[in-house]
UniProtKB/TrEMBL annotation:
Lineage, highest ranks first: Bacteria, Pseudomonadati, Pseudomonadota, Alphaproteobacteria, Rhodobacterales
Localization (cell): Membrane
InterPro entries, sorted: MAPEG-like_dom_sf (IPR023352), Membr-assoc_MAPEG (IPR001129)
Signal peptide span: none
A cellular-component GO term for this protein: membrane
Descriptive protein name: Membrane protein
Length: 129
């Protein structure tokens, strides 16, 4: 498996971990009964649980673009040491983004997010070159 595909797989597992963290934090905040009922009406989480939810949603958004970048690089055969590095940087940024968002690391949260964004941008542009 290429380093890019490995990073994508680990990023997907990270998303599953975030979903678990969100589920536990959300249930702790609203209670098991509320967490188990249908979502006909939205449940608004606040504080740390809300930040965990927003970090998870942010990763869903970024993971789609990163996945496209990895697939295009892989299938076009344009992967190299730089695309492997960009994929590793994306994964590292997404790992660091969770505590940065949950604990409000200002301005580091935005800088960490930017590393992941530009790593993804690099993959997409490298595929076109």
């Amino acid at each position: 498996m290429t380093p890019e595909l490995t990073a994508l797989t680990l990023a997907a597992l990270l998303q599953m971990l975030q979903l678990t963290l969100y589920s536990v934090a959300g249930q702790k905040q609203v209670g098991t009964r509320t967490a188990l009922k249908p979502r006909d009406e939205g449940i608004s989480l606040t504080g740390k649980a809300g930040r965990i939810q927003r970090a998870m949603n942010n990763h869903f958004e970024g993971l789609i673009l990163f996945g496209i970048g990895v697939m295009v690089i892989t299938y076009s055969g344009k992967n190299d040491a730089m695309t492997a590095l960009a994929s590793g940087l994306y994964l590292l940024a997404r790992i660091l983004y969770i505590p940065a968002y949950v604990f409000g690391w200002v301005p580091w949260r935005s800088l960490i997010w930017a590393v992941g964004f530009f790593a993804t941008l690099y993959l997409l542009l490298a595929a076109l070159m």
